[in-house]
Design brief:
The protein is α/β, with parallel strands linked by helices. The protein has 13 helices and twelve strands. Helix 5 (about 100-110) packs parallel to helix 6. The longest helix is centred in the C-terminal third of the chain and has 26 residues, at about 285-310. The protein starts with 8 loop residues before the first helix and ends in an 8-residue tail after the last helix. The relative contact order is 0.17.
């Protein structure tokens, strides 16, 4: 007989550890001299024209509830954006929901289809929210471990090995947090093929889509022929427009899932902040927004080249050049938790231990290059000294 054990939400919450990133952030904020490469958010200010749209919204009295699925004008603007930039069709009436940041979308997504005990495949290392929210929704997160030797990439073949009768969905996050890896068109297609042939849903987190460097390009799984009925795309204004504090994200996908998410949002927050939604809608159709994003992208690329060049020369570090986002994920071996604490106290540089992002992150550190290059230079000087001293045997970080 199959016995279902129901676990209450508060018990599930007890089982989920607090975010390791937040803990480090708290430690770092206690010292003035620490350079933090910890928190993954743009150091740029929100472009002025977007801020002025929010002021306009306040002056025009856009200060009330919006529909649970978000402001109509914003859903329409998102629908146009998805069509023009991602070749994804989504009806603003019932296939798009505006959420309180991309982060909030995930709990809504799992709650729209996942049965108790069903598995969600999550390539690891991964953004911390996926596994926590799958568990909150009663599912089981299952890692697909990726390696630095393989560039933290995966294909349909890798996915296939982890599918069981209980697998319901797979997450794709390209460009990736924390590794910066960008999947190729071919890899995405092979993942989509395998997922569809097994009847899996694909959750595509595209919040770093605008931050792709070199000759790779971002591909939306929902744009692939025959896939749109099986893909929920999650995106956000946070990284593309330096709007993390505005808390505006969205999800697009088949109407039956979106309608459940809208129902959940009704009881969670009713809707995201009205004047932030208004500004986000206008940001999407203002050509100045693209120019701002492009200027930020070029600066991130310059920093990536700089930080990669410096890390590559340091002893005891192996590092791959990330193709996107604003993270670099060097392999340092040994205990990444102990090492990141020593880096904080002895080198005054805050980084995030790789194991925060799942078991495949062990022995790595995540560095976010969301600081001006002059500060990155000081941080790299400190790290270099730490690792040079380490090589001379003053101490051993492999502990
Ligand atoms: C991969 C990934 N997805 C989603 C998010 C959520 O971003 P927000 O809630 O600010 O939209 C983040 C934020 O760091 C992220 O790194």
């Amino acid at each position: 007989m199959f016995v279902v054990i129901f676990v209450s939400l508060h018990e599930r919450l007890n089982e989920i550890p607090p975010s390791g990133i937040r803990r480090l952030f708290d430690l770092a904020s206690r010292s003035h001299n620490v350079i933090s490469l910890g928190i993954g958010e743009p150091d740029f200010d929100t472009p002025e024209h977007i801020k002025s749209y929010a002021r306009e919204a306040l002056d025009r009295g856009v200060t009330h509830y919006t529909p649970n699925s978000g402001l109509k004008e914003l859903r329409e603007a998102i629908s146009r954006k998805l069509k023009e930039e991602n070749s994804v069709q989504a009806d603003p009436e019932d296939e798009i929901i505006v959420t309180t940041g991309g982060n909030q979308a995930f709990l809504l997504v799992w709650s729209s289809f996942l049965d108790h005990g069903e598995e969600v495949l999550i390539p690891s290392p991964h953004f911390v929210t996926y596994s926590a929210t799958v568990r909150l929704a009663g599912g089981i997160p299952v890692e697909i471990p990726l390696s630095s030797e393989g560039g933290f990439r995966f294909s349909g073949e890798d996915l296939e090995r982890y599918i069981t009768p209980r697998t319901r969905a797979v997450v794709i996050n390209s460009p990736n947090n924390p590794t910066g890896a960008v999947l190729s068109d071919k890899e995405i297609r092979s993942i989509v093929d395998v997922a569809l042939s097994h009847g899996l849903l694909i959750i595509s987190d595209e919040v770093y889509e605008s931050l792709v460097y070199d000759d790779t390009r971002h591909v939306s799984p929902a744009s692939i022929n025959g896939a749109s009925g099986s893909v929920i795309t999650v995106n956000s204004f946070s990284k593309t427009y330096a709007m993390t504090g505005w808390r505006i994200g969205y999800a697009a996908g088949p109407a039956p899932f979106i309608s459940k998410m809208v129902k959940f949002q009704m009881y969670l927050s009713a809707c995201p902040t009205s004047f932030a939604q208004y500004a986000a809608a206008l940001a999407l159709s203002d050509p100045r927004s693209k120019q701002s994003t492009e200027a930020m992208r070029c600066e991130y690329r310059r920093r990536r080249d700089f930080i990669y060049g410096r890390l590559k020369r340091m002893p005891n570090i192996q590092v791959a050049k990330p193709g996107g986002a604003f993270y670099i994920f060097p392999s340092v071996g040994g205990d990444d938790l102990a090492l990141s604490e020593r880096l904080l106290t002895e080198a005054q540089v805050a980084v995030v231990p790789g194991s925060t992002f799942g078991s495949a992150g062990r022995g790595h550190l995540r560095l976010a290059y969301t600081l001006p290059i002059e500060k990155l230079e000081v941080a790299m000087d400190r790290l270099e000294k730490f690792f040079e001293d380490s090589r001379k045997g003053d101490f051993n970080h492999k502990g």
